[in-house]
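$ run holo --ligand "guanosine-5'-diphosphate" --emit tokens
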Amino acid sequence: MLIKTAEFVCSNTRVDLLPAPTLPEYAFIGRSNVGKSSLINAMTRKKGLAKTSQKPGKTQLINHFVINSNWYLVDLPGYGFAQTSKKNRADWERFIRKYLRQRENLQCVFVLIDSRHEPQKIDLDFCCWLGEEGIPFMLVFTKADKQSGVKSDQNIAHFRRALLKWFEEIPPHFLTSAETKIGTEDILKTIDEININ
Ligand code: GDP
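-- output --
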């Protein structure tokens, strides 16, 4: 997919104030620091589009961007920051789960996972919850440039194996890097295919 335009639309703290669900929507989510903002910027080739390295405790926002006037890219607040307060965490739970359950134009959630690590419970639990809710998702392993391909492949295989406890069919995955941009075109191609069908 050629990105002709990528524009910020709005930031929201309330699900009832989101833009009208008139375009297909794709949401990106993961642990804080997983590389979500960097990946969104690499994918859209627009450096400052998503704000990188947000501090924990900052207002949690659902950010909408419109791509090629054709689909929404949604940057969801990261989960699992150790330093965040209990209240922040509870707010996140309520807000994001409500969005994910209710957003009628949501086509797919891209769950970002740091390819350097062994499977983390918080990521597995989140995928499991998406599965239980019947929300379509795919896995995006980030920061591939930070270690060998062999190591990334091992961690991906571990993660997929861990999911087999809950899922008969494991969703597709992408191995990406915001530095080298590998994998970014594959994600866009997948979005294109879903949009066409
Ligand atoms: P977010 O909190 O998930 O939005 O994470 P950021 O995009 O802000 O990235 C967190 C940190 O990881 C920053 O220091 C980024 O420069 C770094 N980072 C993100 N993606 C990559 C990547 O693909 N490769 C490398 N080497 N560093 C990355």
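-- notes --
The CA atoms of residues 68 and 153 lie 33 Å apart.
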